[in-house]
Amino acid sequence: MPTIKLKVFNLRSMILIKKNTVWVRFSLFLFCTIHLIAQETSFQFEQGKDIQIKGVEKHLYKTTLHKGELLQLHLLQKNVDLQIIAFSPNNDTLQRFDAPNGKNGLEIVELPIKKSGIYHFEVSPLLPKRFTGATRQKYIDNIDGSYLVSKYKIYSQKEHIQLQNRRKVRKDSVISWIKNTSIPLQSVKATTGLTDLMGLKPILKDVQVVGLGETSHGSKEIFQMKHRMLEFLVKEMGFTIFAIEASHIGCEPINNYVLHGKGTSREALTAQGFWIWNTEEVLEMIEWMRNYNLSVPEHKKVKFIGIDTQIVALDLAYERVDNFVEKTNDNGLLKVKVDSLFHKLKNKPDRKDMSSQRQELYTVLSYLIVNEIKLIHQTSKQEYDQIITDLRKIIQGVEVADRGYKKTFDFNVRDEYMAQTVIDVLQREKPGVKMVLWAHNTHISKNIETKVNGKTRPLGSILKEYITEKYYAIGFSTNQGSFRAMNYNAKEKRYDKNAAFTLPPAKEGSLDWYFAQGNKDIFFIDFVKSLLSKTITTFLGQERKAYRGGASWSLDYGILPAFDISPGKNFDGMIFIKETSHSILTPAGEKEIEKRVQNNTH
Fold it and tell me: What pairing do the DSSP bridges indicate for beta strands 82-87 and 93-97?
């Protein structure tokens, strides 16, 4: 039998207490903590004070509420992922609240009261369904966090109605702004004309890098729209660099194809190593780039550059560095066996700790730098510079892959290196060169607080520091449809297939829902050049749910991939596509999926 400990606090439950035969009425808030026998804990609740919660503890709050009232409750999570369950006076489950924001951030409860009575609110750590057996118990044992009530308010029926009216005025104002300000777009498909995009010219006229985001790594119409934006920016605004969230080394064959026609587009696309880009939509864009380059003079040709620094598709770099060392290390100054090192890196190294590989790579880099004069004399300045670039990308890839090493940083190392690659590409080109940057919404975000894989300081925020207003971030939004991703099988604890995940119509109040009220299938909307009222400025600064998926998701999660974003803080403008569908893999993309399933990777 569990023991129950009660603490009494100032709130709303009406309780009669008999004292010296006199009945006294108090306005009270009861806080109950239910513990298993081995987990008894006693603490006092105070506004603004951390409340510790561990393991499977459940904190039960109850209060008397009246029909027509509105309860607002904000709990600030600290190193614990909470769920809040509301129970009716009949002890029926009314609603479960769990924002997909991990172990930190606000859990928000807003409950309109339809029946008077005593309501219960159970606060407990969320236990993911995918964890079972020993894994589940280990997860429970590691739960050790806290939370505080940052807001608790009960609106009377009159106050509730007034609040609803104020919200309706604000909502109508925002929807009217979206309808009147957004620029309708006729199609997501390239080569269908550019007239409808001409309104973007004055907005982007002084911009050097346009970031194009995406709600997932597998959305067909978003990929197509980014192709169309590339066509517009190239033909109408003089952009000549296309950069993408893919291997810098691995994209060399694509660049050689679009510039010089070397090889085939399908072979080049497969060489970059990411299944997410091995789609018919991206292939169509590559073919367009090749055909465009055939029709224009050299200074207008568009380059295809990868800017990612993961330990993927580095074979060309391994080969060049290995050959360079073999032909120049004639005196044996370099003791590292480069061919053996690279063999280990290509064959699924243990990413928990790659310190030994990192140290060997640093030794190779030191050798190249210390012996620069000799090595250039033996080869050439151009070849030497290429080898330094190759080795830098290999080192960056290993540092990004090394989980132990990444934990030593409080920012996103991968995004830092992607930003450095963007700036390096710009500096190597002629002054004033313009770049189209294709990456996920989270990467292109200009908001330094945006988290990518749990770490802040995304690529877009770093570019804002480097080139300020010359960077313009365009996020994407969709109301419904589907997207492609690797499926994580929670029961088997592995990636078992590539699947199409369904997105139902966005929930009312979400950012995607607001955009859908604009009654336009596709539109662009600017947040920077537009004259914004206080209501709109507030709206753009607030966090709202928006669909967001990555390269993987799970049919077992039981929740939709919708996460909080502040549109005005994250982006300078956005493109909304009312309905999207999943991307179409090429045959080579399908084969890559088969390999990833075998290797249990995403």
Answer: antiparallel
Is 103 within 8 Å of 79 (Cβ atoms)?
Answer: yes
Q: Burial of 549 by CB count in 10 Å (0-12 exposed, 13-18 middle, 19+ buried)?
A: buried
C-alpha to C-alpha distances, 392 to 365, 368, 572, nearest whole angstrom: 8, 11, 32
Q: What is the helix (H) or strand (E) element at residue 447, kind and residue range?
A: none
3-state secondary structure of 109: strand
Write the pLDDT tens digit of every residue in 369-406: 999 999 999 999 999 999 999 999 999 999 999 999 99
Helices and strands in the chain, H and E counts:
20, 22
Q: What angle do CA 180, 183, 186 make, to 5 degrees?
A: 130
d(CA 96, CA 99): 10
Owner of token pair 């030191």: 366
What is the tens place of the pLDDT at every residue in 63-88? 899 999 999 999 999 999 999 999 99
Which of 346, 453, 347 is closest to 400 using CA atoms?
453
Q: Which two tokens stand for residue 538?
A: 């507030």
Give residue 602's pLDDT band: very low, low, confident or very high (50, 70, 90): confident
Residue type, 162: Q
Judged by DSSP in three states, 198 sits in helix
pLDDT of 558 higher than 80: no
pLDDT of 216 strictly over 70: yes
SS3 at position 511:
helix
- Give the closest residue to 495 by CA, choosing from 342, 601, 355: 601
List of residues 6+ apart from 233 with CB closer than 8 A: 204, 210, 239, 434, 436
Residue type, 13: S
Cβ atoms of 574 and 599 closer than 8 Å: no
Q: In whole angstroms, what is the distance from residue 80 CA to residue 58 CA?
A: 13
HSE, side-chain direction, 13 A CA sphere, residue 321: 29
C-alpha distances in angstroms, 483 versus 222, 503, 560?
Answer: 10, 8, 12
Q: What is the rounded distance in angstroms from the CA atom of residue 430 to the CA atom of residue 61?
A: 65
Q: CA-CA distance, 306 to 240, in Å (whole number)?
A: 14
Residue 30: strand pairing partners: 8, 62
**Residue 281 CA, distance from chain mean position:** 22
Cα–Cα distance measured from residue 41 to residue 254, given in angstroms and rounded to the nearest whole number: 61
Output the DSSP codes for 308-377.
E-SSSS-HHHHHHHHHHHHHH-TT----S-HHHHHHHHHS---TT--HHHHHHHHHHHHHHHHTHHHHHH
pLDDT at 48: 76
DSSP-derived letter for residue 196 is G
pLDDT digits (tens, 9 = 90+) for 416-456: 999 999 999 999 999 999 999 999 999 999 999 999 988 99
Which residues face 76 on adjacent strands? 106, 148
Q: Is the pLDDT of residue 43 over 50?
A: no
CA distances, 489 to each of 131, 137, 534, 560, 566 (Å) = 11, 19, 46, 16, 31
What digits encode the pLDDT tens for the residues 296-335? 999 999 999 999 999 999 999 999 999 999 999 988 899 9
